[in-house]
Each structure stands twice: as C-alpha cells, then as structure tokens.
Amino acid sequence: MIKKRDNEIKIEHLEDENVHNVQKKVLIGPEDGSNHIIMRRFTVTSGGFTPHHNHDFEHMVRIEKGKGIVINESGEEIIISKGDSVFINNNEKHQFKNPYKKPLEFLCIILNQEPS
Q1: Domains defined for the chain, CATH in brackets
Q2: Cystine design at 97: which of 31, 69, 92, 101 (Cβ 3.0–4.6 Å)?
Q3: What is the pLDDT along the chain (116 residues), one digit of tens a residue?
Q4: What is the model's pTM?
C-alpha cells in the first residue's frame, strides 16, 4: 500500500502555446507501483486552458474545486463545477478552460499507456 501527502508530490507547470496557467501533479502512478492506472490532479488558474486535443485512451475527470468550462469535440462549451464528473472517450477531442477568478481543480484518471 502507498500513502502520499499532497505536499510530498512534485508540481509540474505546463506552459506552451497550447497550454496556459496549468499545473499537474501525478498523485499515484507508475513510480508508486501502479502498473495499470494513473491518478493526476490538474489546477487551471484564472485565464488558463489545456489544449483542444484528443488521446487514444479514455479518461475520467472529477471536478474537486471551482468551476470552469469543458469544450467537447464539436466546440460546445459546457460549464463544470465542484462535484461534476466527466467521461471522455478515446479519441474524443476536449479542452478545459477557466475564465473565472478562482482556480479550477480536477482529478483525471487514465490507464497507464506503458504498463510494466
């Protein structure tokens, strides 16, 4: 069994032309012995966004704090807030944005794409 405290986990700042004001923490992953699933936390601060992208794997998202917008494949903007859960299918284009003042925090659970 692995137990970790939030303050023990490294923050990765994601920033390029497609990502702005986004932080990621791998809460539980391969380094902890999890061969099949990875749990991550993303924080999108005010004005931040992830790329409008897709993956060849599905993932589940749980909004933990704040509110924001998830944009689906057709460009529809859907408001999300604390307590919402979102399922994103494999190869489904999506993006998260935070036009609000308070940070948007969400858990994102995916399959490990390189299982050992």
Answers
A1: 9-111 (2.60.120.10)
A2: 69
A3: 999 999 999 999 999 999 999 999 999 999 999 989 999 999 999 999 999 999 999 999 999 999 999 999 999 999 999 999 999 999 999 999 999 999 999 999 999 877 65
A4: 0.93
